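[Q] Does anyone have a clean structure-token version of this?
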Amino acid sequence: MKRGWSRSIRLALLWQLVTPWTGAASDAPVLDQIRIEARRSSQAFEIAQYLCDVIGPRLTGSPHLKNAFEWTGRKLETWGFDDVHSERWGPFGPGWTAERVAARMVAPDHMTLITEPRAWSPSTEGRIRGKAAILAASDDSAPACCQGQLAGRIVLLDPPTELRPRESPSFQRWSEQQLAMLRLPERPASSRSLEGFTAQLQRRRALRRFLREERVLATLESGKRDGGTLVVADFGDTLAGNDAPVAPALIVAAEQYNRIHRLIKRGIPVELEVELQTRWHREDLMSETLIAEIPGSDLQREVVMIGAHLDSWHGGAGATDNAAGVAVAMEAMRLLLGSGARPRRTIRLALWSGEEQGLLGSRAYVKRHFGWRDDPENREIAALPFFLRSDFGRLHLRPDHERFEAYFNLDHGTGRIRGIYLQGNERAASLIETWVAALGDPNVVTVSPRSLRGSDHQSFESVGLPAFMFIHDDAGYLSLAHHTNMDLCERLLGDDLVQASIVAASVVYQAAMSEVRLPRPPVGGNGR
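[A] Here you go.
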């Protein structure tokens, strides 16, 4: 362990010695002040805790998310930011909240179910009872074999989940060997995974039509994880009106779901009781993006952005996805303002909504300010969620596109930052390495050419703007908390949030001060 730590220190010192400094001479005192202020009076954990405990889950369109935007806006104003404002986008569609959910097995004996509804599920008509039935669906077609047999039944949609003892800890940090692998070029993306996702969407839509025609009473799905952890959303979940459930839809703890499935397979009748009360919010179909700035000086019209999505799924409280990212982004801005920094370029904070439904808020913002792309001509690719598309249509640019410098995204959990993903923009490597070396943090030494998909940085990438993701320790993000009912405040790591805030503030500041502009990723008429 000591050997790995000293290697990181040597590497950081070596970078400082051999990499040319491209920032202003006054950058170092500002970076020192950022570190001092963060360690003395960080507010990152307090912000994340308030979002989780007091406001709670923040599904786009819900009153909870509107409350979160109001609270974060007031917080930024109390820190001294001028012109904190929202930019509305949409229409998104109706908001949705679950007000009551209860389910139990009442025969052959009693079992209270650990459950959450699927987002945008309709309500039951009070407390309902029905016999459970297994959906005998093939992988390739709608379950015609069950046609006419499921009316008035509570239908199990999934096969049993195989649960095995965990062989690796849920909490992990990047090892030296793993970080070294990240410095290698990534393999080309497989078209097979995209084809599989397209097929999955087609099956889901066929299933929705079938369930509507059958007039099922309700549906159950497996929570997929063990220990009562429920995965409440997957990449196929989108906005109400597109793929919303057609019947009351519950996700049940995998162990309990498996038991019900086994009983039915044994020929033992199972009767369930379900009550689900949900509310749809149609008063305001628009959503918003919250903006705050530190004005630049001689390069004021050029912009460096830092951002995180404020929306979450509904099952937990969105702690690691993404109260942690919001807290780090806000705290980074507070540190920059409090350090007395006078950035050359304007530094702009954006808190997004609609990220979980397809990067909708950031895409609307980028289209309004910087540019957009037509939908691809290939219909199969156009039908994919935006963040999974491998091809785009014709590019249209706005004047501010040329004045944009970089976007840094925070959306990968509560773990400390270990480096930066270049998102394939390898021409930016030397400049980013300079900024990383200036941090003097032996934990932050990795600049990876690789890309992460599925978050708001892709809205900027798609129009040829430099956009980057930070490399975070997983710290239970993907293995435990992501999109589950257990994404609660207990998942947050206070010390890691402090470290991440220092890194984010320092990198953003150097980008705002740099004499050298960041190279842009290559773009063409088609593709990125």
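[Q] Thanks! Anything notable?
[A] The first helix runs from residue 2 to 18.
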